[in-house]
Amino acid sequence: MNKNRKIKIGTRGSKLALWQANWVKSAIEQGQQRDAELVIIKTKGDKIQDVPLAKVGGKGLFVKEIEEAMLDGRIDLAVHSMKDMPSEIPQGLCIGAIPERENPKDVLISKGRRRFERLPRNACIGTSSLRRRAQLLFKWPSLRIVPLRGNLDTRLKKLRTEELDAMILAAAGVIRLGLEDRISQYLNADIMLPAVGQGALCIEIRENDPDTGPVVSTLDHYETRRVVMGERAFLRHLEGGCQVPIAAHGIFENKTFTLCGLVADPDGNTMLRETLSGPEEASEEIGVELAEQLLAMGAKAILDNLRADA
User: Fold this and answer.
1) Which of 1, 147, 223, 224 has the fewest CB atoms within 10 Å, i.e. is most exposed?
2) Per CATH, which fold does 106-187 belong to?
3) pTM for this structure?
């Protein structure tokens, strides 16, 4: 380990991505007394802002170029939003740490700070997430869902400039950027089950890196890692991505891991949802078992149809 060498942290250039990367940078510099610097990398997902993610390749759009920079040695680690991470990590890379999770819920941000029950019956809601779209239409089929891409600031501006009544965003990003006063309502899991890993950060490193590995391991949060890896096992077993409305949220309570998972069709006509509990150390096995249950309940037919249309 060369303690004098500056650690290079790869990140996207959005305000939220920079907040997350700077948080990791500060934690490394203060906790490990190692100098670090940010390397901003523009991903395909940043360049394509006018097309829904499901139509242009899904989650990997936000991480592929950053992972390539790590594999060829231009950076030492990468900071991602865990919900942007594909279910499979490229060979040669691994998840080095998952810090303590921020609030995993989705939030409603609306004109006039109105809650869902006070929105018009045919309200226009902005989101490009198939997961959010499916759950909204399952409960409120009369809603009009319109695509909404761009960084957090861009999307918030669109609430003023476009014909939107409200939008759905991840609570974590809104909180991290100090915009909690914009939140109209936190959406409980019975209304909106979160994305896999939502609210958590992923610190990705090269496998068996003797320098970076020990540095980032101190940022790992045991409970968050156990929960998120259970959620990701569920996603991986379903072979899910942005093209498929899949959601999962796990919690630890009294040494028990409980995972709620969901698979739906994009228009909300069919939704399969189930919950499974077990010992905390078996979170990944529970994720796989829950995925198997949903597949047996009919999720396989939904997934096969969506992949055939992709």
Assistant:
1) 1
2) D-Maltodextrin-Binding Protein; domain 2 (3.40.190)
3) 0.91
